Task: structure prediction
Amino acid sequence: MNQVFTVAAFTLRDGVRKKAFLVTNIILVLTVLVAAFLLPRIGNSAGGEEPTDGDTSFADEGVCYLLDASGGAIPDAAQALELGGFSVTELQSAAQMENAREKIKDDEADIIIHILPGGDAPELEAYTKDMLTGASVSVVAELLNDAWRTARLRAAGVPEGELALVLPGMPLRQLYVDNAGVSNLVAGGALMFLMFFAIYYYGMSVAMSVATEKSSRVMETLIVSARPGRILLGKCLGSGALGLLQFAGLILFAVGSVKLFIPASVELPFALPQLRAHSVILILLYFILGYALFALLNSVCGAMVSKMEDLNAALMPVTLITMASFYGGYFTNLAGGLSGTESGGKLTLLIPFTSPFSVPFQLLGDAADYKTIAASLALLAATVILVAFISARIYAASVLHYGGRLRLKDLKGMLGKN
Amino acid sequence: MSLEIKELTKRFGAKTAVDALSLSLREPGVYGLIGTNGAGKTTTIRMLLGMLPADGGSALWNGAAIPQSGLRYGYMPEERGIYMKTRVGEQLVYFARLRGMRKADAMASADRLLDRLGVAEYKSMLAEKLSKGNQQKIQLIATLLHDPDLLILDEPFSGLDPLNTQLFRELIEELASKGKYIILSSHQMAVVEEYCREITLLHRGKTILQGDLRRIKAGYGHTKLVVAVPDAALDMAQSFGLRVTERRAAEADLALPPQDADARAEEYLKAMLAAGILPAKFQLSEPTLHEIFIEKVGEAVEGGAAA
Result:
């Protein structure tokens, strides 16, 4: 094991001294500092303007088309909407709806309200452009409900003075006691990105290190001093330790910056996630195993080339696997949120290539099913062992091969002889 | 201690890179492994060091298979390989630590050898700042750091200036005198001739000449006469069956006939003396290793073509 640690220590020192490491750290530190400066401003503006006492004015809610097919079930519907801040155009027939739809498509109007006859109460249909744009349907519903109830109460003979006691309704401001869902979604996404970059970058640095040693012929000096498997293990360990140090350092610096530079009174759009100890350990474990898996694959690519210019081509399959794994995990997690119940999401928790990215996301939301995590860890560990075994053999067989890039057929032959 | 190689064979597809090579080093000293490019020297060395699996035969150190780790051997590859972006002292300690040395011992050994080879001043410099010759010295130091018993030096003199070549020669002599077993692979026949007691000449994987160099040369007898005589005496030589092969400013080489070479030379000397010519130089010599190499490889090529 001494040789493994000697190689690891040398790799770690060598990595720390590289200009790329220094520049990356400077960029990361600056990014964190800029974020710490900007977040309080985003946080303050995200709260919106608070209504002041006695302020009865409404913001401009947009252009509304109103078609009443209920025969006047809500007598003051148009006035209610206008009081609510809408500019209302009443439609006379259903035939005019198509024209109104076109206006919404062209962003010339925001909403069409279609009042239909119902049983005890009229029914409402609201058309907006899509899920993300257009007027607030809940605001429209509240205005029309108020108008309908007022009309009913008047019809029932309730005096105007008593009506004034209950109408209009109370202004509402929505606040969040626990913003954990959004916080964890943001933190989960950020963690996935960080883990992806750390795993990808340091995995690739193993490939570059192997290829450099091979092309500069240092490998011949190394290989007579230590077994190839030990060199490979030490190299992965050293680069992994460097990645872990940088990863942990960045997270600590980010948390420290938030605590130090952002006053407690500032309301942030999200809070720092509250992690349990076992979640931290599991995230760490997934980082280590995920890194090991991709670093081993990268090292084989590095060992297969004799010239640095061939490295990119050799790395292409592993790069594709890494990208597909990350984006697969990222999008299925975003689509399934933190519920972890989506079948696609569950699959990414189990596949060894996607689990290092997906499981930490779920752990942040405390939404992970621990039976699934146990199975996922077992699969990941078994894959790492298998890949390590195969990689060490390919590395030993190919590391002293010079000339053209090795093909799979060549490797098969070399492995057979070894 | 001894190194015994028996029937060592390596094939790459249909090509036999090393064909049943056998040799032995039973005493300390320098052993020459020579051959043309692609003769199988580096493949032999790689098999010997366990870097390549052999397809047949064995390499034994003290009667046992050469272990991947544990044997104190040093290998200086033909193509130099050091970390260009790392400080000289640091990488030497790293290589020594990989060989199992403690850090303090590694540093002491590196300091001693840096001093011995006159490059102590470069210890804190990045290797890329050094000249090619000095980088080669660093490579040799990396080979010697752990005081190996068996040394394999692949073209150690290539690219060295005369001063550094002399320095390397002295060091190799010193190591041999200290009881080290050294395998020297080189194209520089003069160097091999100077140091190696025994040689193996490889051509396309096959051993075409092997044994004690003095005996090999003695087996050829005197094939050349070097003389420093007036031109008139050179003209006389032809009548004794001697052929002028090279004229230099002060002397000339004459090829002796393979049969009765010494008798012809004696007759020629007597004739010159009778004519009142006293040669300033009259030296009978055996063929050089270079000449033997050319002859043997030529024979092998012709034999291969004929087959």
In short: Residues 2-44+180-417 of chain A form one domain. The first strand of chain A starts at residue 62 and ends at 68. Confidence is low (pLDDT under 50) at residues 46-58 of chain A. Chain A has two domains: 2-44+180-417, 62-166.
